[in-house]
């Protein structure tokens, strides 16, 4: 029976445990280039004992950014800047992963601490793109509908970004198909109103995300894991739902996606989401059971016993922690002590081991 601190092997990659750092935007890059902040932020979480340290949503092109201060991986300057960060993460025994993203109609906004509102062109904003020219919400710009050439360019951007992520040394890629960003916008009937072969029934709406998966899997090394983060439901009647997710994940599985990171929501501001401890874990459990793919559980998982229970009971194969890891970068080291599991501490910190008190 697997537990939180048992190793996990996917393709040629071994994760020392199943505590994964969830992708978290830091709004601290300059021209898409990660800074010292990213080295310290991601590096601390690798020191803290996580099995996988995933970057924030990292843009595949300039206009794919959520904000002007997002990280990117579309240029050489950017992938060179990721290299020392990747090296440090690996030196600590964690696996370095990158989340690749395109923000679609939710692009061109300010950092949350600056209000998070859509930016005008005077403020450094740009016109976002989307499957249909429907804004995310009142006050958001009307996005430009992607034409065939734009869709073709998009696939090429994901492929180039995947190649650059490999050049930087990342070993895991996660494609961001959740939270109302571009690929989720293609999937959901609430945001995809296209009349061509990319809109309409479920099969048509899945076309572009599956083409992106095929293209990325083709260039991403065969012995490196590929994850997809999916919003399992829009939490809105008539929207994307669990049943559509099961169909979609079966298609991902046969295309060589290894793990689905099961999140939810984000397509529209008015969804009613029943948040609470582990509120998305049952999605990871159902997707795992119905499709046979590995899953990650995420969302208000904060406690070591809770996380260990999810793994022991076979609800998920890994736990993605976001806010708990922001509060406490050494969460895995503390959790191991609490669960009575021996785990390696960085030698520099050995005198602080809780069992040595
Ligand atoms: C500061 C912050 C930034 C986030 N940025 C991203 C992101 O870049 N990509 C993503 O998929 N989710 C992002 N999320 C969502 C988290 O990865 C996670 O799914 C969510 O916070 C629920 O997990 P938690 O309860 O452990 O925080 C972000 C969350 C936070 C708190």
Describe this structure as you would to a colleague.
- By secondary structure, this protein is an alpha/beta fold.
- It has one domain: Aldolase class I (TIM Barrel).
- The chain contains ten helices and twelve strands.
- The strands form three sheets. It has an eight-stranded parallel barrel, surrounded by seven helices.
- The chain is globular, with a radius of gyration of 19 Å.
- It starts with 7 loop residues before the first strand and ends in an 18-residue tail after the last helix.
- The mean pLDDT is 97.
- The structure holds flavin mononucleotide.
Count helical runs. 10
Total of domains: 1
Helix and strand run: EEEHEHEEEHEHHEHEHEHEHH
Q: What distance separates the N and C termini?
A: 31 Å
Question: Helicity range of the residues?
Answer: 25-40%
**Strand adjacency order, main sheet:** 3-4-5-8-9-10-11-12
What share of residues are in beta strands?
A: 15-25%
Largest sheet: 8 strands, parallel, barrel
The fourth-level CATH homologous superfamily is Aldolase class I
